[in-house]
Structure formats: structure tokens, C-alpha cells
Amino acid sequence: MEYNPISMIKRDLYIKKIMPFVNQPIIKVLTGIRRSGKSELIKMIRDELLHQGIPENRIVYINFESFRWINLLDSVALYNYISQKISPDGKTYIFLDEIQEVKNWEKAVNSFMVDFDVDVYITGSNSRMLSSELSTYLTGRYIEIPVFPLSLSEFMEFHSIEETEKAFYRYLREGGFPSAHNAEHTEEEVYKIVSDIFASVLLRDTIQRNNIRNIDALERLAGYLMINIGNAFSAKNISAYLKNQQRKIDVETLYNYVRALESSYIIHRVNRYDLKGKEVLQTNEKFFFSDISLLHSKYGYMPDLIAGYLENLVYLHLIRKGYKVYIGKLGSLEVDFVAINGNDIIYVQVTYTMEDEKTRLRELTPLQEIKDNHPKYIVVADKLQCGNINGVQCVWIGDFLLN
């Protein structure tokens, strides 16, 4: 099989979000976990500008992970360098990759917008740092575009696989980090590559950025969230789990570590939403991972966790599509996902199978209790169980992820 480099895949989902803002006085901020493809995306935009006839001397690209730019890791040095690159012949296009490596970067970027005729694109891998600096210095001047590892459709394009079922089950086990698929790797090799990505993200974007000292406790917390994927978060349960492993940690520190994992885009928080009261609840939230392969890289593929894997994949699909996603609470009943994008609302239950009548009732009942006309889905792993059940669409997960 012939494999294509990731740069050959035009990630249309993101390109379509970025292109309307080209040449607009708005900073384009691409965020997401390391190695999700942010660098390639801004290179695609750069190449598109070159294709449109923008000369190379009006384009500046810097990747701050390269040692070549070690002397530009503070705002003054960066500003001085960029000021020398500003073209007198028209707009200068500035691409700054992994901007969080630059101390006080936001001051320099803000000055670019004030002092020069520029179009600015930046990427970053730490949400806490980006959000605080962006909101302080660049309010109203930026658009944030979250970037994720490959979706199922991108995975199929990447590997030139046309059979959806074959692609899905491979995707379920190997995930979507582009660098894990740039050659014909074995599953074991994929997990080794992803394990290295995880270690790098944990060290550079979680531990160092948040000055975490108890690294062992942080790693055990991440492991706990992995093996409890799809379960409600309980600080009490995690504290007990760590205590049983002779790793005592107070609740406040525990929450700080959770926020640190969120800030590096390793995990995503999903709050509960009261469907009757129409309000977001701040307890019993769930956490999902930026890519399913992160779990496999630590523990291998665990069939007993299939329900959580499926929920994780569905969650990622919904947020890629621009939905704000919640867990629905309806009295004592629960809907796995309530996905909202303006007036567009969908309700989604996720289960491995509906063969058992008890499971069938558990999945159907909450959806049937919702008395509006928005689409309602049950996503399953068994194609034979798909169809319409009293207005609820039962959909095979592979089809749902390609919708």
C-alpha cells in the first residue's frame, strides 16, 4: 500500500474555517494537542497564498520548536526580527508555530497588528496560557480554530481505504495522530509513537507549564481517567484510588492537575446540562481524550472499555463539527450527549449493542422523554441493529462518524 504524507491531505474541515478570515484584521489562532496537524495546516495556508501569487518575501514562517529560532524566544527579539521582514510592497503574512515558546509573545503579536500591515496566523499547544494572554491583549482581534488529530474520513483518505468498516475498526485501535500513520506501522509501533507524543505533551505542556512537582501523581491521575473513560468524574473516588496506591493527594491539588491536563489538550471536560432547567451543571462531569490512541498507548487496546472508546469517538466527532457538547440530565435519566450549535440541537446515545432488552430500554427511554422535534440518535457498533425506532434513528458508528 502506498502511504501519503499528511501534507497531501487537504484538511477541508479546517481550511474552510480559516479561509474566510484570510486578509482580515483578525489573528487566526490554531489550538490543539501537539502533533495534531496544526503546523501542516498553516503550511497549507502559506502554500495557498504562494499559489495565489503572493511573493515569498512577503511571507514569514517561524517554527519555535526549531533550534534555529532560539534567539527569538522573547517578545522584544521577535518584534525586532519581524519588523525587519515587513514588506514595503503590500501586506506581510506572518506564521508563528508553537507561539507559547516565546516569552510575552502576546505583546509582540499585538504590536504587529498595531504597527504594520500584516495578516497573522499562530498555533499553540497550551490553552491556559493562550486563553489568558489572548483575552488580555487581543480581545476582539482573534478567531480560535481548534485542531484535532485525524477524523475517520481523514484517516480513510490518508490510508486510501474505501471500505468504511475496515477503516473504522483500524481507526478504533490506532487513532488519528498523523505522525503515527506516515508509514506502514504495526499496531505496536503506532502505540510507541503515540506514547512518545503523550510523554512530550505531558512534560512540555503540562508539567513544565504548570510547575507540577508530583509527576507520579499526575501520571496516575491520567491513567485513572483512561481506565474510567466515559464514567462521571469524582474527586473522592480518584483520591481513594491514589490512596490505595500509597499516593495521597488533596482534592485541591487533584483539581489543579485535572486543569493542567485540560490546558495541554490531553483531556476535554464535558459538563452536565439540565434539559428541564436549561442550565449547565458543575458536578459529575466527564472527561474524554483528544485521541483514542492515547489510551491504547498506555494500556493497549482493552475490549472491556469499548463503550468508553465509542463515546470518546462520538464526542470528538461532534466537537469537530462545531457543536458545544454536554451530558444531558433529565430527572434521573441521562443522555450521553446533547450537542448544540445555535438552533441546531441533536441528542445522542452511544452503546456497543442493543440486543439486551434492558440496554434497549436504557438507551431509548431518555430520548423518548424529550418532547421536542430535534434529531435523536442511538449510535451502535452492530450494523444489524440499525434503523428507525419510534422516531429515534439507530445508526452504525462508522456511518455516524462520516456524517
How are the SSEs placed, and which strands pair?
Elements: H1 12-18, E1 27-31, H2 38-51, E2 59-63, H3 75-85, E3 92-97, H4 105-115, E4 118-124, H5 127-137, E5 142-146, H6 152-159, H7 164-174, H8 187-210, H9 215-227, H10 235-244, H11 251-263, E6 267-274, E7 279-289, H12 293-299, H13 306-320, E8 324-330, E9 333-341, E10 344-350, H14 357-369, E11 376-380, E12 387-389, E13 392-396, H15 397-402
Helix pairs in contact: 3-4, 8-12
Précis, in short:
43% of the residues lie in helices and 21% in strands. It is of the alpha/beta class and 403 residues long.
Structure overview:
The protein has 15 helices and 13 strands. With 403 residues, the protein is of the alpha/beta class. It folds into two domains: 6-146, P-loop containing nucleotide triphosphate hydrolases (Rossmann fold); 152-402, no CATH class. An eight-stranded mixed β-sheet has the order 7-6-8-9-10-11-13-12. Helix 3 (75-85) packs parallel to helix 4 (105-115) and helix 8 crosses helix 12 (293-299). The longest helix has 24 residues, at 187-210. The radius of gyration is 22 Å and the shape is globular. The two termini are 26 Å apart.
Quaternary class: single chain
- Domain count: the total is 2
Strand content: 15-25%
- CA-atom Rg in angstroms: 22 Å
Count of individual beta strands: 13
pLDDT averaged residue by residue:
93
What is the H-and-E element order? HEHEHEHEHEHHHHHHEEHHEEEHEEEH
The residue fraction in helices comes out at 40-55%
Task: Count the DSSP helices.
Answer: 15
* Low-confidence runs of at least 5 consecutive residues: 1-7
Shape: globular
Task: Trace the largest sheet across and list its strands.
Answer: 7-6-8-9-10-11-13-12
Biggest sheet architecture:
8 strands, mixed
Distance between the termini: 26 Å
Helix-and-strand structural type: alpha/beta
